[in-house]
């Protein structure tokens, strides 16, 4: 019984008020008698629905204020080749319709009502950067308050153009713009505003974003310059959406394997140059790296030249260079042990300078030992030079066997040759060490660069 009272009183109030104030009919107050028994009477809103094609203002010199905001609910795709950002937005629009108003006390305590949006005038707000046709579902509804404030939200899949810079891939940040403006209404007819702060938009978007995908929302900024097209000035609000790529996938799939291959390549310098194992090992690594590059090609952005491509190219050339270095050292060793040419004096003094203080070539001491003509003491891995070194005096020995004995000159010549061999072997090892250190230096600097970029 009690529940029946307020509506009836509402109807009575409604009737009395409408009877007492006949003038309120001019201010478009909606007559909601009977809402408690029959639901909303379409006839009560018919006058509003009939005005749908026209901007709802009483005085046409007064612009309509539309408050715009949005919630970014997903970042679906970033296409670097087409320079497109595909995202999902909930666009929120709010404006006043002066032809709608009712007294909630008269109308069964009704404060707000949903009305099918197709029956209402809607502002033609669109996103300038959007490159897709609007796929908004057509049967949306809007909230209408008793004061005539209309709240209209629509979900939008926005494929917007965005200038993407993939130089720092996979540590890149992008700054995409959503410009909300009216398609037709100039500043005389429509003004845009905001009822929220941008940090509120950022916070709700962060809470709402479902995708834990590749992109992370960093922040949203806004600016609202007016746009002049011809003679017409349009109001607009620009939102700058900053997003950052989550690089973990790329670190695990691109940088780590590449780093391992480069590290193994660096370690392969410790394989003795004389053993002949080094170059096959490096060729295998080079092949492996090529296969890696082929497989990882589709993870890289398909356009532009990101720094990481340069890095991969550098790694590849580093491997090629180290292979060339191995070939060069092998050749040098071969030359040194078979027919050593006389060493230029500047090279000799450089060698002495480098090996005697034993400072600039840290590995020189133990390699110097090898070169000091003690073939018996060499490691088992160093068979080849042993043979070569022993073979080279071979013809001399044959001569000796054929002749009466070693003359002093022959002995001296032999000793000189031996000395030259030692010098050249020493030089080869020095070169090897030097190039190895250059290699390490480059490797360290590129790794530091990558880490530095990651941290910015
Ligand atoms: C409100 O509507 C009722 C019935 O629809 C009608 O009897 C009444 O006269 C209306 N009041 C006004 C002020 O138009
Ligand atoms: C309409 O609005 C303009 C500007 O606000 C004002 O100058 C004008 O008097 C208004 N007209 C009426 C009929 O209220
Ligand atoms: C728009 O936002 C401003 C500032 O928050 C507020 O004063 C105004 O009433 C709002 N207008 C509409 C139509 O929502
Ligand atoms: C995005 O770019 C605009 C200008 O193009 C700039 O005003 C804004 O600060 C940038 N935002 C970020 C987060 O870099």
From TrEMBL:
One of its GO terms (biological process) is serotonin-gated cation-selective signaling pathway. GO terms for cellular component: postsynaptic membrane; serotonin-activated cation-selective channel complex. It is found in: Postsynaptic cell membrane. CDD domains: LGIC_ECD_5-HT3C_E, LGIC_TM_5-HT3. Residues 254-367 form the Neurotransmitter-gated ion-channel transmembrane domain. Residues 1-27 form the signal peptide. Residues 391-412 are annotated as: Disordered. Keywords: Cell membrane, Disulfide bond, Ion channel, Ion transport, Ligand-gated ion channel, Membrane, Postsynaptic cell membrane, Receptor, Signal, Synapse, Transmembrane, Transmembrane helix, Transport. PANTHER family: NEUROTRANSMITTER GATED ION CHANNEL. This is 5-hydroxytryptamine receptor 3C. It comes from Prolemur simus.
